[in-house]
Specification:
The chain is of the alpha/beta class and about 350 residues long. It folds into 2 domains: about 1-110 and about 285-330, Isopropylmalate Dehydrogenase, CATH 3.40.718.10; about 120-275, 3-Layer(aba) Sandwich (Isopropylmalate Dehydrogenase), CATH 3.40.718. It is built from 12 helices and 11 strands. The chain has an 11-stranded mixed sheet, with helices on both faces. Helix 6 packs across helix 11.
Length: about 350
């Protein structure tokens, strides 16, 4: 079962519900939270919980998630926390999803920060980028955990046997980049020397390498990742618009466009961000998927299917085991009595 918050989508809650109906036809079971009057009749496999209150556009999503337990996203997150559903899909704001998920589903044991990971629609070679917005600031230990999280996602969801992980920087040399990048590179390189099995660390990668296939997973902080993602989305849309405009600019261009229509449609579908269902919210005790608010029903259906697949294939469990085996989990602080006992021993 996948819990879905319908509120906050650009095309309205009804579009999300239509996506849920498509997912149900493909075998998904969905628990919809939204304004029942706008969702229409749902097929078998979809249950509606009337939850008209939305905090998707709240200026302070943390405060809103704490003070509005009746909101659709909080109710959906609680359904996952209580075991009524095994994964969460939020069609509204990322901040609301992160806050509601953290407060209700809770962080997985030993995880510093949740992260948003998105498979970029690179032709012939999808690349997972994280963090793309959950943490504007990060520390070295956060980046290391993000590397393991992204590798587990690429392995389980995208089928990459041994993912290549790169660290986003402004140069390939190990000493290039911010203090955070230099420290993170040194830590990941140290783990390679100790015998890293979860993934192959390929070192620093530059912005031009993101789409070049040199890595399967690229890790950065949420501020940098979000800026990079938005830039790539804008360039992609601008290029598609320019191609469309050029193809309609003259009678000869229209003829050429007609001949290329099939190939261009295939290319458009391959780079369509809706095909991957959105970003994965990793680091909680259950999986979350955050589709873009402008998605159509096809994108929301894909988000639900990806959430169901991730829950079935235990992305959360596999991520946690990889972190544990690598010694990358946060350790609980030692109490004073325990420390004294260790020293005495």
């Amino acid at each position: 079962m996948v819990a879905v918050d319908c509120n906050g989508a650009d095309l309205g809650a009804g579009e999300v519900a239509a996506g849920a109906a498509i997912a149900a036809a493909r075998g998904a079971r969905v628990l919809l939270f939204g304004p029942a009057g706008e969702l229409g009749d749902m097929p078998a496999g979809v249950e509606i919980v009337d939850a008209p209150i939305s905090i998707a556009k709240a200026a302070d999503p943390v405060k809103a998630a704490r003070s509005t337990p009746e909101s659709s996203i909080v109710q959906a997150a609680r359904a996952v926390a209580d075991g009524r559903a095994q994964a969460l899909v939020c069609a509204g704001g990322t901040g609301a999803a992160l806050a509601a998920g953290t407060f209700n589903i809770k962080r997985a044991r030993g995880v510093y920060r949740p992260a948003l990971a998105i498979p970029l629609p690179v032709p012939h070679h999808p690349v997972t980028l994280l963090d793309v917005g959950a943490n504007a600031e990060a520390r070295r230990e956060h980046i290391v955990q993000f590397a393991f999280m992204g590798a587990a996602l690429a392995r389980v969801v995208l089928g990459v046997a041994r993912p290549r992980v790169g660290l986003l920087s402004n140069g390939e040399e190990s000493q290039r980049g911010s203090v955070l990048v230099v420290e993170s590179h040194a830590e990941l390189a140290r783990r390679v020397e100790e015998g890293l099995d979860a993934f192959e660390f390929v070192g620093n990668v530059e912005g031009g390498d993101v789409m070049g296939g040199v890595a399967d997973v690229i890790v950065t902080d949420g501020f940098t990742g979000n800026v990079a993602l938005k830039l790539m989305e804008a360039v992609s849309q601008t290029m598609l618009g320019a191609i469309r405009e050029a193809a309609m600019s003259s009678a000869r261009a229209k003829l050429g466009g007609a001949l290329l229509r099939g190939a261009l449609r295939g290319f458009r579908d391959e780079i369509d961000p809706e095909a991957n269902g959105g970003a994965y919210l990793l680091g909680l005790r259950r999986l979350g998927v955050v589709p873009h608010g402008r998605f159509t029903r096809a994108g929301f259906a894909q988000a639900i299917m990806r959430a169901q697949q991730g829950a079935r294939e235990d992305v959360v469990g596999q991520t946690h085991r990889a972190l544990e085996q690598a010694g990358a989990l946060k350790r609980a602080p030692v109490s004073a009595p325990d420390a004294s006992l260790r020293e005495a021993g």
